[in-house]
Amino acid sequence: MNHRSTKHESGFSLLEMTVSLALGAIVLGGAVQIYIQGVQATWTTTQRAEMQQDFRAASNLLTKDLSLAGAGLNPGTAIALPSAVTPVYGCDQTGTCYINGTSVQYPKQGTTPYLYGLLPGYNDGPTLLASQGPTDIVTVDYTDSNFYLNCYTATVTAVGVVTFAPPSGFTTWAATGCLPTGTTLTAPQAVNDAAIGLTAGDLVYFPSLNGTPIVAEVTGAPTLVSANTYTVPFANADVLHMNQTSGVYYLNGVPKNATGASPVRLLVISYYINNTVTPPRLMRQVNGHTPIPAAENVVYLKLTYDLFNDATNTPAVGCENPGASGDVCVSGSSSGLIPNQITKINVQNMAMDSSMNGTQFGQGNGYQRLDLQTSVCARNLTYVNNYPN
Questions:
Q1: How many domains does the chain have?
Q2: Domain for residue 62, yes or no?
Q3: What average pLDDT does this structure show over 110-123?
Q4: Which of 31, 62, 312, 382 is 20 to 30 Å from 285 by CA-CA measure?
């Protein structure tokens, strides 16, 4: 006898399936939204952390150089430069000038240009946003304490040529006392040392060549002529217009055989924003060498300065364009003052933008920005004792 099963199997109805799909879509959509928000938060956090790291590195470099302004030079030093053609900074050995597409002249007292430990550059940078106006630049100079050029004696031996040799009566480098205590070196680096020696574009400060302090630009490679003795070219018509000869003056107002001790390499360092690339960059240029980027996405740089008037015993605080007759200061006046009376540099605003997050996952998240405001004491420039006796 055959037995037919009476059990019936039934599936989901169309309504049940529709409800299930709708609920599943809601749950899945919620999970996807949570995932997108998590990725977005991670992206934002990572982006901000990277921006902070880059910004910290750039600001540390800038503030370190600012703090060294004038180091190795006498307080209040103002070095007179040749004036037949006004010397400039901001150019390299190719003849290309970079600061807002041009060069910047050294400030003058009367008709004589001077090099100070710090050179403000009010509105000398490019304009990135019309509403913000021009950016600033800033230039500092200090001596290179890592290269012991001071161990040599310099003598102007031909037009635009200086010979660096051991001092008179030389026996050993240790006997000269020119090497700092604690160094492992037994002799100064060679003037033509491949790693640290003089190269075209370097600036050398001669504190006294027959009583005259001068600054000159190296225009070629040093040549070894005998043991510990080198000739270095400082040819006329150099890129920075530092080397000027005329008549009996073989280099910047000094004659042949002018001799002086303790020459040093001078580091003249400029910071400015380069807006000819995208994104804009904060650039650092040393002497007459090609600039290198200090940070990307730096979109604003503005500085002010505190000065002290020795004659009137009064400060001028927060001055935008120190020394100018129309300078704007928070208090006091800097009119008529000169850069070697600067006591503090205020980074009024240094701004960095992140890379745009764009339309990541359809979310328009725009930019993030960091802003720096800080002050740096120019301890190697002027010092005035304001304490009563």
A1: 1
A2: no
A3: 95
A4: 382
